[in-house]
Design goal:
Layout (H helix, E strand, L loop, with lengths): L1 E3 L15 E2 L11 H6 L6 E2 L18 H20 L6 H21 L2 E8 L5 E7 L8
Antiparallel strand pairs: 1-2, 1-3, 4-5
């Protein structure tokens, strides 16, 4: 199996035979700093029997235990949010998100020398920031 170097570091094409490097080991800790910068991840490999029309990518080493745990927890989190989205459990979190959003409007007002008169957050998950003044540096049209 040959390791590929990152294409952004070189002006050579991927199908150039000199671009392939089979003598470097990305896990060799004795390599100097310049070799470490060129080392590719272990999952970025090309099979020796790749056809000339393109690379035959082998991703068998891409998902180790930490990646599987991360993907499983992310999938579980997304499923939990999907199931609980329209429940009363999520309502306080949604209202906090609306408040943080309205605070960003208030912060923009303060940064442009304006004055915030009120911030209102409604139970229908809407909100409004009432302000006066401020310099409108960015005008539309």
């Amino acid at each position: 199996m040959n390791h590929l170097r990152q294409a952004s570091l070189y002006s050579q094409e991927l199908n150039d035979p000199s671009f392939l490097s089979s003598d470097s080991d990305p896990h060799d800790l004795s390599a100097d700093a310049s070799d470490a910068a060129l080392a590719s991840p272990t999952w970025l490999t090309q099979n020796d029997n790749a056809s000339s029309s393109g690379a035959d990518w082998d991703l068998s080493n891409c998902c180790t235990t930490p990646e599987i745990i991360f993907l499983s927890l992310t999938a579980g989190y997304l499923l939990l949010i999907y199931l609980l989205w329209n429940t009363t459990i999520m309502k306080p979190m949604k209202l906090i998100a609306v408040f943080v959003h309205e605070m960003s409007h208030a912060t923009a007002c303060w940064l442009t020398c304006g004055s915030v008169k009120a911030i209102e957050v409604y139970t229908n998950e809407g909100g409004v920031t009432k302000y006066v003044g401020g310099k409108r540096w960015f005008r539309r049209g």
